[in-house]
Amino acid sequence: MMRKRGDSARDSSPEEGGGPGSSRPTVLVVEDDKLISTVIRVSLEGAGFRVLTAMDGRAGLDLFEAERRGLAAVVVDRNLPRMNGDEVAREIEARSPDLPVVAMSGFGRDDVDFGA
């Protein structure tokens, strides 16, 4: 499936050796913040993984369905548009119970009540 820049899913480019049929393990990253998604993608690619990305929960679940047999792991943000990350993680775990799913979330100091 061809995607244009800015689409909700991304695959490592063939030039990076990560296209379909690659022998590298594949990780699906579902993250709506482009900067965070890019940092995770670049880090994982640098560690030798092929990376697929989706920008919202629904797109992430759709991409999981399309690629599930080739996935080594999923990294999902807990706070996503269209379908939250907890729902995505539960759906993936129900459909592929042996697939590692890492749920993550980032909050700034002002976003967390530290119980003064």
List the defining traits of the structure above.
five-stranded mixed sheet; 116 residues; 3 helices; alpha/beta
Plain-language structure description:
The protein has 116 residues and is α/β, with parallel strands linked by helices. 30% of the residues lie in helices and 21% in strands. The chain contains three helices and five strands. A five-stranded mixed β-sheet has the order 1-3-2-4-5, sandwiched between helices. β4 (71-77), α3 and β5 (101-104) form a beta-alpha-beta unit. α2 (57-67) runs parallel beside α3 (85-95). The longest helix has 13 residues, at 34-46. It is globular, with a radius of gyration of 14 Å. The termini are far apart.
Topology:
Layout: E1 9-11, E2 26-30, H1 34-46, E3 50-54, H2 57-67, E4 71-77, H3 85-95, E5 101-104
Parallel strand pairs: 2-3, 2-4, 4-5
Antiparallel strand pairs: 1-3
Helix pairs in contact: 2-3
Average pLDDT for all residues: 82
Calculate Rg over CA atoms: 14 Å
Order of SSEs: EEHEHEHE
- Approximate helicity band: 25-40%
What's the story with the biggest beta sheet? 5 strands, mixed
Class of secondary structure makeup: alpha/beta
Q: Give the terminus-to-terminus CA distance.
A: 51 Å
Helical stretch tally? 3
What form results from the Cα inertia axes?
globular
- pLDDT < 50 stretches: 1-8, 12-18
Task: Tell me the strand percentage band.
Answer: 15-25%
The tally of beta strands, per DSSP, is 5
Strand order of the biggest β-sheet: 1-3-2-4-5
Short structural description:
The chain has 116 residues and is α/β, with parallel strands linked by helices.
